[in-house]
Predict the structure of Resolvase HTH domain-containing protein.
Amino acid sequence: MAGVGRRLLGWGGSRPQALTTSQQRSIVALIESGQSSPTTAAEDFGVSRATVYRVLRRLRNKVDSDT
């Protein structure tokens, strides 16, 4: 039953996102246009390469499912 009080107070237990939606779109645009590599984008935005690749995968899957 640990954490029940936190949930009642509105704390969902999720970790805050490292990047805003706008930043995520910027990363995808920079990489897809060839202006940046995933490594450079990660350094510029202060996140890991894994985060950049996760963003790319998530947004590309979203585009694929929309079409």
